[in-house]
TrEMBL record:
Residues 1-32 are annotated as: Disordered. Residues 22-31 have a biased composition (Polar residues). It comes from Roseateles puraquae. Residues 39-187 form the DUF1521 domain. This is DUF1521 domain-containing protein. It comes from the Bacteria. InterPro entries: DUF1521. Residues 1-21 have a biased composition (Low complexity).
Length: 258
């Protein structure tokens, strides 16, 4: 397991101080052949079988992502998706699921990035294209950086006033997420005319390169380089067209009827 963690103060003297905010006491471990993320409000598991399960401890709601990929809400099939999809949960936790081809135009959940405050973890090897490669890479204290290096894809917001998920369409309207909505917004089925780059490609490649080398923790020198690269890349970014982002809207509702 690769753990991204801060080292000594001396080794990080050239970097900006990071907040250690972990407001929901998030942590991740391996148990029974599954990766298990848990905080005060959610328990999220992922196995080496194309499956990700999200359980809301407060409401008892259960979201099961399985197969190629289907989404079941409390045991009932709700919709399928194809491309990268983010499930933005009520407490601010983000679950971004990246997919890989499964053949015949279908995809499988492969990599899961979870962020909660400044805590982050990446779970890889979820798909069955290759078995036995499930692993977790924690980024304690680097959740915001982990989030920044992953495209959100299609963002679905957990419904705070009822079952399922809501989203904001291109017209700024709040929509209940169903198959019709996914068919119109999934970024793999509806690729943009020009791919929007979020400046994270360099960091993704850098993290991938180092992940196969480090087995316990990444050095302070690497964290310093990561922070410097993040600052330099950010300063070169050009203005971009607006994209869907769970952080760009707040839903305040008493009751919604569908």
């Amino acid at each position: 397991m690769t753990t991204i963690q801060t080292a000594s103060a001396t080794s990080l003297s050239a970097t900006a101080a990071l907040s250690g905010s972990n407001p929901t006491n998030a942590s991740t471990h391996m148990s029974g052949g599954q990766a298990v993320f848990e905080n005060d409000n959610y328990r999220i598991t992922a196995g080496d079988n194309n499956t990700v399960n999200i359980y809301n401890k407060n409401t008892g709601e259960n979201y099961n992502i399985w197969g190629d990929p289907h989404v079941n809400i409390d045991g009932q099939h709700a919709f399928d998706f194809w491309g990268t999809t983010t499930f933005a949960l009520e407490d601010g936790t983000k679950v971004t699921i990246e997919t890989v081809p499964a053949g015949n135009g279908m995809t499988l959940a492969s990599k899961v990035a979870i962020t909660s405050g400044d805590y982050g973890v990446e779970i890889s090897g979820v798909d069955t294209n290759q078995v036995g490669d499930l692993k977790i890479d924690e980024a304690a204290g680097w959740g915001s950086t982990l989030d920044w290096t992953h495209d959100d894809g299609n963002v679905l917001q957990e419904n705070p006033a009822g079952k399922g998920f809501l989203a904001v369409d291109d017209n700024g309207q709040i929509r209940k997420v169903d198959q019709n909505y996914i068919n119109a917004t999934d970024l793999q089925k509806n690729p943009p005319a020009e791919a929007t780059q979020q400046g994270g490609e360099f960091l993704r490649n850098l993290l991938t390169m180092f992940s196969g080398v480090m087995t316990a923790s990444l050095s302070g020198a690497f964290l310093s380089a990561l922070s410097s690269a993040l600052d330099a890349t950010e300063s070169r970014r050009q203005p971009e067209p607006a994209v869907r982002d769970a952080n760009r809207f707040t839903l305040t509702m008493v009751r919604l009827e569908f």
